Hints:
Strand content: 5-15%
Radius of gyration: 24 Å
Largest sheet: 4 strands, antiparallel
Distance between the termini: 60 Å
Mean pLDDT: 82
Order of helices and strands: HHEEHEEHH
Number of strands: 4
Number of domains: 1
Low-confidence stretches: 164-172
Number of helices: 5
Amino acid sequence: MSSLHDFATWEPLLRLLRAGNADRLSAPDGRVGGQIGRYAWSVPLRRSPPPPGRAARFEDMQDEFAAVKRVQSALAEAGEDSAAFVAELSPAGKAVLHLLRSGPAVEPGIGSPHPGALVLVEDAVPEPWRRMPEPVPGAVPAPSADPAVLERTLHERVPGPMTRTVLEGDLD
C-alpha cells in the first residue's frame, strides 16, 4: 500500500482542516473536501490575516505547506497527478477520510473534490466546445456600445501593433 493511502500521510492536513472548519464540521453531516495536485491544491483553510503593516509570510502558512507537501510527496511516489478527498472530522477526534478515485473518462473538477466532465469517447470534447453558440434573434449591440471608443481604449492600454487574426470577423 502506498503512503497516499496511509492515514499518517493525511493526519497533519486533517488536523488543520478540523481546526479551521469547526462550524462546518459541527453541523449534521458536516464534512470538508478538497483536491491536492502535485503542484497546486485547493483545501478549505482560512488563513489568518497578517498584522497591520505586514504582508503574509511563508512562516504564516508553514503548517499548511508542510501538510500539503506530505500528500504531494505521496502522490509523486504513487505516480498520481492529484487526489480529491472528503473528510468527516468530529470534534471528539474521530476522522474518516474518503479518497475519491476516478477513471480516465472523468476530468477532474476545478477547486473541489467533485468530478468535472465525463468524457465518453477518448479525446472527445463536449458539444458546447465544438460549435459556436446559436444566434439569438433580435440581438443587437447595446445603445452604449461605441466601437471607436473601444479601439481607442485598447490602443492606449495595449501598446504596440495590433493585428487581426484569422479567427476575427463580423458577427452579422
